[in-house]
Amino acid sequence: MPNPAHTESRNPVKRRGGRRLLAVLALPAALLLGLGLYWFQPWKLWQDATVHESLPAASPSAAAPPTTRSPAEGAPGTAPATPQTLAQGTLISHEHTTTGTAKLIRLPDGSHTLRLENLDTSNGPDLRVWLTDAPVKEGTAGWRVFDDGAYVSLGKLKGNKGDQNYAIPAGVNPSDYGSVTIWCDRFDVSFGAAALTTV
After folding, report:
1. What whole-number distance in Å separates Cα of residue 184 and Cα of residue 117?
2. Which of 20, 70, 76, 103 has the greatest number of beta carbons closer than 10 A?
């Protein structure tokens, strides 16, 4: 017959060993959870950042106005006195529901800006605005095509809602790119995109 005193003396040892094991397992689990939260940042899906920017009169880093030729007169002239929309397109949804309009605009000083109007998409980690030469495809086939060819990052997405402007660097020829994407650089996926059609 077992000795009760002997049995009771072993139980605390087992309990202490179990606690130590739990403590050892809890540390890496907490680290993994922290890394996962940092990487995915799921709370951003419930946080909106709304930006309302007016159309700029000129790019902050613009050069002198280039000489242009008027199609009507066939004579040299200066850049138009008002902003001109050169191309535009409607944003379609990719990994996240996305709506709004993308416009490629030439400013009076000859510089260019990409304007997103009435944008509505999800927030997320490391979102960028890209000009690309990739075709815009519906559905999952279009989620990951935008880093396959040429692209130019215009910077971080300022907000997941509203109207916002993204200056196009002076050395970039906008006509080399036919689409725009809201690109999640962390997971290499498009939230939404638009094909730019000449106006």
Report:
1. 19
2. 103
Question: pLDDT digit string (tens) for 103-148?
Answer: 999 999 999 999 999 999 999 889 999 999 999 999 999 999 999 9
Residue 77 lies in a domain: no
Closest CA to 68 of 53, 56, 84, 51: 84
Instruction: Identify whether residues 91 and 181 lie together within a single domain.
Output: yes
Q: What pTM value is reported for the model?
A: 0.71
Distance CA(155)–CA(20), nearest Å, equals 48
Would you call 40 helix, strand, or coil by DSSP?
A: helix
In a domain, 178, yes or no: yes
Contact 133, 178 (CB under 8 A): yes
- Residue 88 falls inside a structural domain: yes
Total domain count for the chain? 2
Same domain as 166, residue 131: yes
Structural domain for 141, as ranges: 43-54+83-198
What proportion of the chain, given as a percentage, has pLDDT over 70? Answer: 65
d(CA 157, CA 53) in angstroms, rounded, equals 13
Residue 71 lies in a domain: no
User: Is there a contact between 125 and 152 (Cβ–Cβ < 8 Å)?
Assistant: no
